[in-house]
Amino acid sequence: MGDDSEWMTLPTDQKCEHKVWKARLSGYTEALQQFQRVTDEKSPEWGKYQGLIKTFVADSNAVAQLKGLEAALAYVEKAHVASRTVGEVVSGVVCKVFNQPKARAKELGSDICLMYIEIEKGEVVQEELLKGLDNKNPKIALACVEVLRRAVSEFGPKVITLKPVVKVLPKLFELREKAVRDEAKRLAVEVYRWIRDALRPPLQNINAVLLKDLEEEWAKLPSSAPRQSRFLRSQQDLRAKYEEQQQQQQPDGDTADGDAADLEDAAPTVDAYELLEAVEILSKMPKDFYEKIEAKKWQERKEALEALETLTTNPKLQAGEYGDVVKALNKVIGKDTNVMLVTIAAKCVAGLAAGLRKKFGVYAGHLVPTMLEKFKERKAQVVQALQEAVDAVFLSTTLQNISEDVLAVMDNKNPSVKQQASLFLSRSFCHCTTTTLPKSLLKPLCVALLKQVSDSAPEVRDAAFEALGTAMKVVGERAVNPFLADVDKLKIDKIKECSEKVELAGGRKTSGQMKKKPVSNAEPTAEASARPSAPSRKTPTASAAAKQSAPKKGKAPASKGAAATTKNAKNKETVEPELSLEVCEEQAAMVLPASCMQTLDSANWKERLAAMEDFHKAVEQMDSREMPCQALVRLLAKKPGWKETNFQVMQLKLQVVATVAQRGSFSRTSALAVLEAVVDRTGDIKCSGRAKEALSAVAEACKLPWTAEQVVFIAFGQKNPKNQAEALCWLSSAIKEFGFAGINVKAFINNVKTALAATNPAVRSAAVSLLGVMYMYMGAPLRIFFEDERTSLLSQIDAEFEKVKGQTPPAPIRGSSKASTGEEADEQEEELGTDVVDLLPRTDISDKITSEMVSKIGDKNWKLRKEGLDEVAAVLSDAKFITASIGELPLALKARLTDSNKILVQRTLSILQQMAVAMGPALRQHIRGLGFPILNVLGDSKNTVRAAGLATLNVWVEQTGMKEWLEGEELSEELKKENPFLRHELLAWLAGKLPSLRSVPSDLSLCVPHLYCCLEDRNVDVRKKAQDALPAFMMHLGFDKMNKAAAKLKPASKDQVVGLLEKARASVPAKPSAPTKTTPAASGSVKATQSPPASAKAAPATEQLPAEAKKVKSAAVPKAKAVGKKPLGKAEEDRSGPIFILVPNGKEQRIKEEKSLKVLKWNFITPREEYVDQLKTQMMPCVAKWLMEDLFHSDFQRHVKAIGTLIEHLEAETGATVSCLDLILKWFTLRFFDTNTSVLMKALEYLRVLFQMLINKDYHLTEHEATSFIPYLILKMGEPKDVVRKDVRGICRLLGQVYPASKIFLFLMDGTKSKNSKQRAECLEELGCLVGMCGMLVFQQTASNALREIAGHIADRDTAVRNAALNALVTAYNICGEQVYKLIGQLSEKSMSMLEERLKRSVKKPSAPAASRPPEEKPSGSANACLLRKPSLRLSEIRSQNAAVQKQNSEVPCMFQLDQNFIMELPELFIPNLAVVDSEEPWLDMPEFKFRLPSVSSLVEPVCSINLIISQVASSDAKTSIQALTKIAEILRHNSEWQVMSGHVDELVVSLLMQLRLLASRRMAAERLEAQRDVDELYSSVIGSLNQLVLAGKLAQEASPGVLKDLVQALLSLILDPQQQQCGGESQLIRAVHILLSTLLKTADSTSTLSALLMLLQESCNSSTCSSEFKELVMKCHWRMIKLLPEKVEALYLDRVLLDIHNFLKVFPREVIRQKPIDLIHRTVKTLLHTLYRLVGPKIMDHLSLIENRDESAVEAHLKRAMKHYVPPLSQVNTENVCKAKTLPSASPVKSSTKSAAVPFSTENFNPAHFQERLRVLKELHVVDINTKPVNEVRCGLPVVSSKPALPSSMDMLQSQLSQLLEAREEQDGQNVRPRSPVTPVGPPPDLSDFIARLERIKANLH
After folding, report:
1. How far is the CA of 1092 from the CAs of 994, 1104, 1116, 1251, 1287, in angstroms?
2. 193 phi, psi to nearest 5 deg
3. Three-point CA angle 832, 837, 838, nearest 5°
4. What pLDDT does 1718 receive?
């Protein structure tokens, strides 16, 4: 009991594994109860027992095992994970259960096996049972046979594969155990019950007695077909059918309707051939076979043939190389005169064809022509043998492959040959279906047979009738009737009579018979019987039957039928006789007003115009059924008729023609009455549009093919070049609208050749354009017809073809083509493709392939072999296009592919490429004979040979498609060869081809075992390519099927392969979608989207971009989805989620990895594969899986789809897009290297919307993002297409709003070095625009070098480059005048003359030229210009407004006056949210409102008014800018209205900074005193506005750190400006700047200010050109902020400030500082840090959260060092005193420090006055200038530049150290100082020497 109590408390799963059998029994019982309770098959409970089930069935205790089997059965029946346990459980059942004596155990084991079969695991179960048959224990073998019998009986051969079962039956019959033999006999009877006589051939060699017993048992079986009694989980619908049938079963056993018959036939027919083992006969042939077959004695030849005949009697032969055998037999049949030998040879051919089946199809093309020719023999024995042979050969191939051979024989003069060829076709048709006998194949065969219908020989006629009747039986009357149009009725009746007598192969029924069968049944069952019939669209007779039964179903079908009838009637051509003019007038008078009839021929044009208006109105209101079309259009010819001179009347006439053609029953007779006149008006400028509309209407009524032929004929008959050109232009557009179906291509090509030979260039150009449209439909074969044209003309044609290459023809939107669906559309496409192929003139070269040539190719001498190959190449070159008949050439070329001379191998491959192009699609019949031998070449050891083989293979696949290559076992046999080169190349080829296929033959699964072998190959490349091919195979075969195949591997290999399969499962590409047919509505919407109205095109880009984005989302995407709407599957349901996954710090991590060179830097000339793989790896965790498939798919259409998805999700996933921006931009750089224009245009569209979003988000590109994208964008500036270059220019201008223009300038300068002239020109144009926008500051410090490079392009060969360079220099001249000549240096005489000439012609001349400037004077730019980051400003609107003002005030000379025409061409440069102008405001389009700014009161409401004023601040016109500044000053002065500026502070500051830069440029060019005064006035206004801004409320606190940095940088640069300092002393401007800086540091946000100052300090240290004076000023700003910290410390965001200090110290660690003369800067930052610590205390350590790896940070180290010396403050009083001392204004930093230091020493034992005196003496000892300025002067600004920077810092630190010293002394003395009580000094003051010594120690500690 103790043991029981131990395991009874255990959980169920642990009980099942317990050592005690009772515990296991209890566990199995509980598990069984638990399994019975769980109803959810996906419950997690099932997973607990997944690994235990195998122990349930293999328990060692018999009692426990029974319960375990019951539990296992319940588990397999209910658990969804049970399929994963099948192998282990069934193996356990076979080994551990079937050997048990208890019948119950065996029964449960059998039930478990059958249950596994029911859950779709029949293959594994069958495999384990077959293994059990080899077990030595007869009980196990007996049980396995019994389970197999039960499985076959219950599930049938659809589930259980019978071939392995039949294969083991003979072996089972030979076992000793009688019980096993008896059970095997019962199994054979059960198999026979299902497959009947197909079982006899495999068992023909067993014991005769046993066979006799089996025959007796088989005879007892009922004749009715067996039914499946147990169903798989996926066959529940079939099970429901059976149950429904049993319920409806009648008492006599017959079923009630046609469904029963269908179900009775549900038993699959098993081919006995599949159950047989293949026999290898090649090795068993006589060794002297080929010698005897060539012997002169017929007896020896007969002996050889009889030996072969014996071998070919085997029903199934093993595949091999039968080429030589076939060649020998072919020679005997064709040339041997002994009919007996011909008969034997024919029988051998029949045996080979029957034994090899499809594998014999390779040789069919060689044998069929010979055997058909041999039918000239009249002996019945020979004829019968040949008939059997040719029929057997046909079954190994298709009629398509041998059709040309049959057609060639049909013209034979011998009537026996013609008769037997027709009879052969008749027998072949019996095996065909509507699919295998398409219209393209049926047409030439019917034409040839119809010729024989009229033959003089009656047997030939009868055979032709029989063949035509069979064809009619197979495809239906509707498909054959078009070919019988010219056949008399008697012959047609004869054909129909033969059709009724025909019985198709296998007892098949035609679709017409299947429809007619239910008609005889009772009426209630009519509808039910019609249901299971074939779809009506596939069979014409089915649709007819449907129409007959339609009235029984009510009105809806009747209306549908009526609609179909109307449609057919409309499509049917209207035929009517030609009417006379009198009859036309009578009919027209009945429907037209009398006034109209009277005034049509009036001499007054106004009356004729009124009459035509009434005419047109009457036609529009007329009933279409009563409209006399011919009468109306002929009436238009009434005098003056079509010679009308008034264009308004003529336009109305043409409009009437169009309306009549559209609304009435317009016949070709009516069309012929007006076509000539309408075509004549196409060349009229005023009437051309109406004439083309009329032609389109006529084409819609009379079909385009006929109309186009008439129009072209008439146009070239009139000999008016204008009419000819316009007619061809109309034809180009009409083909796009109507489609190309039915066009007479031959006639078109002749007309186009005539047009190309015209002397008028417009006609030739229109013809070339028409060829481009035809090329979209016909493809490359079209060019062949124009190879004889002139070289210049051919180059134009090639250029036109290149434009449309890769474009998909638009879907027809007019005519009958738009309504054709299903079979009609397919027939049109098929007919089009057939026409194009049929047009090519093909030559039969079989006569030219002589036996001498073939013998040369096979000669032992390689030179002769080469000569023979050269002769073949010459024959192919002369023929250009050939038929499929090439004689004995295939066998000869095949031998040369294995030639030892590699040069001959490559020559053979080139011939095969030449042959593929020349033969076209007919090449398919040579795939087996010549195609697969090409694969052997891939195994060659030389790279050049393999490359040639791969190229040849691809050329063949282009002509034949992939389907034929994947059928059969040939491909798997090639992959089976253990050649690493072959496997490597073949797998790589398959990995590239398979993803582009929508479906593949099932034979592809034969390659899977060999693919798994390649995964374990010793060669690394083979293993890698095998892994790459896994997703492609899995895409078509599915994971489950490949996983099943892996289960057959050895355990070690299985684990590895399964792991690779799981890995490849994640990267399986999606199958390419089937081409969807665009509906007219959808195509119209797309067209509307692509061509917006003119108003939209005229709108500026700033207004157009958001509209485009909305249009893409709201119109294009939904329409595109509506075109190919499908039921949502799993893949499409997964596409509903977000496309980007936000990874924290993902972008920063990628930047860090690239900087540390852990990954490849994104820098390449052309993207290599490793870059693509790296980007794919980086995007994997950030992008949705389904989008990744589209992004990296090989099909460009998937790329377009992916970009559309990105556009659709851009607005919803803005944040995630920004987080992945670097990856997105990198992916688009890859698309820049694509050649597909549609992808490129879609990419540029997305980039426009993307950058507009970034602008709205105020986002700025990082260096990493910019350098990865901008250089590749600039490459596209050299794109030959104008539309691409235009979009790239727009994106470049948008870049200026998210990236500094000065840095874009550098990229553009690099772009000017390109070899592409278009790129150079575009880059120079952009450079000129940047200079015009931003002034000379865009050059930074490289103005001279950049201008010299630009000037160097004046001598460029390309005109566009020269003009762009000259325009850029003119723009620079307009800014800085004659100074440009100094900057560009020396130029050649020619270049200088071109520049001077351009400057003279330039309208934009500098208003203040610098010609009078002394030559030695240099431009006095700021020394810190490199630090001035130019903010990107939106100036397109500003300059457009300025242009309007200059137009109004043109009489007033203005500085920097702009040309309005030039302004319209300027690029648009933006800044985030600077001037978002609402396009709907009417006053924005009116230039006169430029000076009429809104009033202050009106500014509160419209935000756009504020934006307008801010935008005008940066105007280049001084008056405009001053007016805007005045308005802003007025706003800021009112306390109640300054809040209007809230939210616009950054924009205002940036505009003011831009104006400061413009003023700096003006000051350089201003020589006159008046101009300098204007500049000074504007300077004052700008500084005053800034001062008012920082004083207005809390506006200054809204400024961002970046803007504050730029502002401080600009103001400090202005202080140091040499031109300002030349004024003498401190000017008013500099004093105002000092005041502004002081106020700004007080009022701005302290955190933003400190961040800005630290960034500025870091940049100044990084710059090698920055002056020391500038650095000193920056440090003084830091000191000023340090003094203000006690007041601002509460408002500080310490985390951010400490992070900025950390970044600074990280860039400049102490080791670097010691090597550079910037130690003072480092001490300044440390002072800031220590001051913060002193004010906050130890709690400051809690504010290091933003610093990564804070343990490694220098900030934490400094703070810890300060913490060691930290002493708590004395008291609140002392703290307050210190704070007050620091905030008091001081005359200088020295004085301020003195006061601050004096306060702490008030607690010492000496008088403060005495201490101050001592301190003064100390200053004198250190040679400190104590002459200070008045306090009120210091309040006006920062410390002056002349003061030494080291002393304030030292004194500040001295103050801190003295405070700490005082506190330390107080602790040492133990004195308690009371707050708020003064301390009176006691005793004499200390000696000065002691004080100096203390100071020296303090200084030593500081260093």
Report:
1. 40, 11, 12, 22, 16
2. -60, -30
3. 95
4. 59
pLDDT (0 to 100) of residue 1816: 58
Mean pLDDT, rounded, for 1027-1048: 87
What is the rounded distance in angstroms from the CA atom of residue 1305 to the CA atom of residue 1284? 21
Three-state SS at 19:
coil
Handedness of CA 1618, 1622, 1627, 1629 (dihedral sign): negative
Determine the Cα–Cα distance for residues 1230 and 841; give it in Å rounded to an integer.
43
3-state secondary structure (DSSP) of residue 1074: coil
Q: Between 1115 and 1532, whose confidence is greater?
A: 1532
Give the residue among 524, 529, 636 at the shortest CA–CA distance from 581.
636
Least confident of 194-198, 261-265, 1157-1161: 261-265
Burial class (CB in 10 A: 0-12, 13-18, 19+), 396: buried
3-state helix, strand, coil split of the chain in percent (to 5) is: 70, 0, 30
pTM: 0.40
Q: Tell me: pLDDT of 81 over 50.
A: yes
Pairwise CA distance, residues 1558 & 1556, whole Å: 5
Mean predicted lDDT score pLDDT of the chain: 75
44: preceding bond cis by omega (within 30 degrees): no
Question: Tokens in use for 1669?
Answer: 């004076």
- Quick one: tokens of 1594? 């809390």
Mean pLDDT for 1239-1263 is: 88
In sequence order, the 6+-apart residues with CB closer than 8 A to the CB of 1544 are: 1506, 1507, 1510
Encode burial over 1026-1044: b for 16+ CB neighbours within 10 A, e otherwise. bbbbbbbbbbbbeeeebbb
| Interior/surface letters 974-994, b for 16+ CB within 10 angstroms, e for the rest | bbbeebbbbbbbbbbbbbebb
Residues 6+ apart with CB under 8 A from 97: 57, 65, 69, 105, 106, 108, 109
CA dist 1542 and 1536 (Å) reads 12
Reported as type and span, the H/E element at residue 1681 is helix 1668-1688
Residue 1885 has pLDDT above 50, yes or no: no
Report the distance separating Cα 1301 and Cα 438, nearest Å: 65
Distance CA 393, CA 354 (A): 8
- Alpha-carbon gap, residue 364 to 925, rounded angstroms: 8
DSSP per residue over 1815-1871, as a string?
Answer: HHHHHHHTT-------HHHHTTSSPPTTS-SHHHHHHHHHHHHHHHHHHHHHHHHT-
Amino acid 1773: pLDDT: 37
Phi/psi for 1140 (5° steps) reads -115, 145
Cα 1262 to the chain's mean position, in Å? 27
pLDDT tens for 1173-1228 read 888 888 888 888 888 888 888 888 888 888 988 898 888 888 888 888 999 999 99
Provide the b/e sequence for 140-174 (b: ≥16 CB within 10 Å). bbbbbbbbbbbbbbbbbbebbebeebbebbbebbe
Instruction: Report how far residue 175's alpha carbon sits from residue 172's, in angstroms, rounded to the nearest whole number.
Output: 5
Share of the chain above pLDDT 90, in %: 8
Using CA of residue 220, residue 223, residue 224, residue 227, what is the dihedral sign? positive
Answer whether 905's CB lies under 8 Å from 945's CB: yes
Residue 1886 and residue 1580: Cα distance in Å, rounded? 55
pLDDT top residue among 1761 and 1404: 1761
Furthest-apart CA atoms within the chain: distance in Å: 154
User: Which residues, 6 or more positions from 293, have their beta carbon under 8 angstroms from its beta carbon?
Assistant: 301, 304, 305, 328, 331, 332
Residue 248: closest CA among 534, 528, 553, 549: 528
In the predicted model, what is the mean pLDDT of residues 464-471? 90
| DSSP track, 1299-1360 | S-HHHHHHHHHHHTT-S-HHHHHHHHHHHHHHHHHHGGGGGTT-HHHHHHHHHHGGG-SSHH
∠1650-1651-1656 over CA atoms, to 5°? 95
